From TrEMBL:
The lineage of its organism: Eukaryota, Metazoa, Chordata, Craniata, Vertebrata. This is RING-type domain-containing protein. It comes from Oncorhynchus mykiss (Rainbow trout). One of its GO terms (cellular component) is Golgi membrane. The gene is LOC110537380. The keyword Ubl conjugation does not apply. It is found in: Membrane.
């Protein structure tokens, strides 16, 4: 017992670090085989989990998307509550309240004529805010790496924390917002655009009605609009320009809301300045796996290691 009660107060910080490092190596000496098993378990679990998720998504996309959305919503909440990240919890609460109201409106039947426009506006606003926040966060991180923060006398650790936080906020709410937008778009897809004067849905879509928001189209396809143009798909159904763009970018739909005709994104986004919005949406789709399922897989790996007695 006396060997462990050594006075380290006379040692320098560097000597203390070396001593702790030597103790750690002594503790794990001879455990190389165990560490190899743990790495092998991690790799096998990641491969199997990826195959299971891909098959699940292909065979049962609705249940996969619903469970993934729930994971995206709850998993960060658990970790941020544990770490006492109150600013994130406040923004998460505000987002949840507003999105819950919008989702409630989107799932009511019969669908009110003003609901699609409300749903579209909220998720488009959320998408633009998340996009701008992510870009600002990424720029701050890059400026910090190049030392530009020193010009403004900002500590590197403070600037990096600020940039990473903004990047996290932008990516997280971008992913979550797109998933909720897709869910609302799926629910409204069977009723949007089919409105009569009484507000009850009908089976005929007039040529003067937008199939996304259900509002009248005031600008002819051949005319140049002041605020927005009118867009006609190859199936001859017409839409407000911003509505069909929101349907494709925010709601992740690449088909006509009325007849499921394929939408030509290259024709819609001919302006090179608009293409980054499409790429940003694809990035959000890829990050969904990291946020929703990666913590679950890592937890599963740790559970397997615990059952097998590996440390």
């Amino acid at each position: 017992m006396e060997n462990y009660l050594v006075d380290l107060s006379h040692l320098s910080p560097e000597e203390k670090w070396r001593l702790e490092h030597a103790r750690m190596h002594a503790k794990h000496k001879g455990h190389e085989a165990m560490h190899a098993e743990m790495v092998l378990i991690l790799i096998v679990t990641l491969v199997i989990a990826q195959l299971v998720l891909v098959q699940w998504k292909q065979r049962h996309p609705k249940s996969y998307n619903l469970v993934t959305l729930f994971q995206m919503w709850v998993v960060p909440l658990y970790f941020t509550t544990k770490l006492h990240w109150w600013r994130f919890l406040v923004t998460w609460f505000i987002f949840s309240v507003v999105t819950a109201y919008v989702t409630y409106r989107a799932t009511r039947k019969p669908l009110e004529c003003t609901t699609p426009r409300l749903v579209y506006k909220w998720f488009l606003l959320l998408y633009k805010i998340s996009y701008a926040t992510g870009i600002v966060g990424y720029s701050v991180v890059m400026f910090t790496l190049f030392g530009i923060n020193l010009i403004f006398r900002i500590k590197p650790e403070d600037a990096m924390d600020f940039g990473v936080s903004l990047l996290f906020y932008g990516l997280y709410y971008g992913v979550l917002g797109r998933d909720f937008a897709e869910m609302c778009a799926d629910v409204m897809a069977s009723t949007v655009g089919y409105y009569s004067a009484s507000g009850m849905p009908t089976k005929h879509l007039s040529d003067s009605i937008c199939a996304v928001c259900g509002q009248p189209i005031l600008v002819d396809v051949s005319e140049e609009g002041i605020i927005e143009n009118t867009y006609r798909l190859s199936c001859n159904h017409v839409f407000h320009e911003f509505c069909i763009r929101g349907w494709c970018i925010v709601g992740k739909k690449q088909t006509c809301p009325y007849c499921k005709e394929k939408v030509d994104l290259k024709r819609m986004f001919s302006n090179p300045w608009e293409k980054p919005h499409v790429m940003y949406g694809q990035l959000l789709d890829w990050l969904r796996y990291l946020v929703a399922w990666q913590p679950v897989i890592i937890g599963l790996v740790q559970g397997i290691n615990y059952i097998l007695g590996l440390e």
